[in-house]
């Protein structure tokens, strides 16, 4: 799995601020067997949240987030990882966990 990167889904409004709804997009790619969409999990502030996934991009909406700083965690595995049969915890050795901080202004 390639390390995830996070970006806003559109350019900022005037003066570099986002004054309208914006989503946060995470690139989730794997050059080997590919990302298994069924393995994806998105968590914001400890609560699993809905997301969309298309063309290697995981998108989270920010419209339901209260103003302030939020911790985002994204877990993804490739197709090969989901075939591994090791008897280990819920996160297998090749399953990357990406953490990011998102700040929503009032």
Can you describe this structure in just a few lines?
The protein has no helices and eight strands.
Order of helices and strands: EEEEEEEE
Number of strands: 8
| Head-to-tail CA distance between termini | 35 Å
Number of domains: 1
Rg for CA atoms: 15 Å
What percent of residues adopt helix (DSSP H or I)? under 10%
Write down the overall geometry: elongated
| CATH topology descriptor | Immunoglobulin-like
CATH architecture: Sandwich
Structure in words:
This protein has one domain: Immunoglobulin-like. It is built from no helices and eight strands. The chain is elongated and about 45 Å long. Strand 3 (41-44) and strand 4 form a beta hairpin. Strands 1-2-6-5 form a four-stranded antiparallel β-sheet, with no helix packed on it. Strands 4-3-7-8 form a four-stranded antiparallel β-sheet, with no helix packed on it. The chain is 0% helix and 37% strand. The chain has 106 residues and is an all-beta fold.
């Amino acid at each position: 799995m390639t390390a995830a990167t996070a970006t806003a889904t559109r350019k900022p409004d005037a003066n570099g601020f986002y004054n309208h709804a914006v989503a946060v997009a995470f690139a989730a790619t794997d050059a080997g067997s590919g990302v298994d969409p069924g393995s994806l999990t998105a968590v914001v502030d400890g609560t699993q949240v809905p997301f969309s996934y298309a063309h290697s991009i995981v998108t989270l909406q920010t419209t339901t987030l209260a103003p302030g700083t939020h911790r985002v965690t994204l877990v993804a595995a490739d197709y090969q990882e989901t075939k591994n049969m090791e008897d280990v915890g819920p996160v297998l050795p090749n399953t990357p966990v990406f953490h990011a901080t998102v700040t929503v202004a009032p």
